[in-house]
Amino acid sequence: MVLSERIQEYINKLPLSFQEEVLDYLEFLLAKAEREDKEWLRLSLTSAMRGMEDEPELYTIADLKVKYS
Known about the structure:
single chain
């Protein structure tokens, strides 16, 4: 049996008031997971960029502009 089916079976056995608590807890867990994902992305970018502020600039904005004739 798939995990989601097992979870559903247990939820169906609970009284309605407890099912509402399960829903609240699932919403809490989802919000927590989303926050952790965002934090992980921020930390990953911070780590990737660490030390780059001390590197010399290799290009200017003028170097990046394409000139068409």
